[in-house]
Amino acid sequence: MFQNIFSFEGRIRRLEYGLTRILFLLGCALIGGFSEAVGGIVLILLIPAIWILLAQSVKRCHDLGNSGFFILIPFYGLFLLFADGTYGTNEYGANPKGVGEFNPNVDYTA
Fold first, then answer.
1. How distant, in Å, are the alpha carbons of 2, 23, 63, 74 from that of 52?
2. Model-level pTM greater than 0.70?
């Protein structure tokens, strides 16, 4: 969880996406509080926070088997919180839950 948070490649689960959204909102509240006391220079901290949120949103779109451009659809971020990911491997990688993956070390005939 929370590996390669700046990368736009791969897939993530709903839990990681939801935690990212919550941490982003808390971070914005803190940055907003400090910016009034210190000045606008603290707002530069929003740049990496927005980058992380975009990267995590794109990876969540990948978990559903969709392009990252789907985050441009209004309210699609809310859909990403509740939709279950694609079963098994898709074009963006393996299922982060491991559901539907073939394990060569397991005897499935027994």
1. 10, 11, 17, 19
2. yes
